[in-house]
Design goal:
Layout: E1 6-14, E2 22-29, H1 35-56, H2 72-76, E3 80-87, E4 90-98, E5 102-103, E6 112-121, E7 135-136, H3 138-152, E8 159-163, H4 168-173, E9 177-181, E10 189-193
Parallel strand pairs: 6-8
Antiparallel strand pairs: 1-2, 1-7, 2-3, 3-4, 4-6, 5-6, 8-10, 9-10
Length: about 200
Amino acid sequence: MPIVPTTRSAYLFDGLSDSPLEVAASIIRDLPSARLEEIERLWKPAREQFSRVLALSGDTSEHGHWDWRNKVWSIESGRHRIVAVECRGEIQGLMAVATQPRPAAIGANAEPVLYVDYLETAPWNLRGPATRPRFRGVGTVLIEEAFRISRDTGWGGRVGLHSLSQAERFYLASGMTRMGPDPDYYDLVYFEYNED
């Protein structure tokens, strides 16, 4: 039986406004994998443009090579669920969460943790040396949704993820605990949030 997407209301902030202007958005749980083709068609050229802007300042984008179409098999096999933030008719951010829990690193009981495998904001929402994001708060809305999914699944709001170095500050600001580099996962830093 196919999974039916669900939506709920959320808010982002207009990144081009000098005042904190809220903009209505929707969170879509279980975004159909067929939509990833359309998203990549829009995101790929914008990702490449953002990478060129970063290169001018001597920087690189750690996730500039991502392609969400590569996740189709894992969605259709039930390994991942896709969560999206949509605003003004366009997808503004995507998150892939594992359907099976991981054991918690925080605490002695190894409670189940919802694992966020991938999280990406649309390229036009990234802050660069000479660019302002079209919308702010996309990553925050997605992480908050991960907490909700974990609670709804019975995992107590516990969430874990491995972070690219460019995103570590964001996860710390989100209230997650930095557990340190994981030698079993490309030495990426593991973060975890435990509701307790």
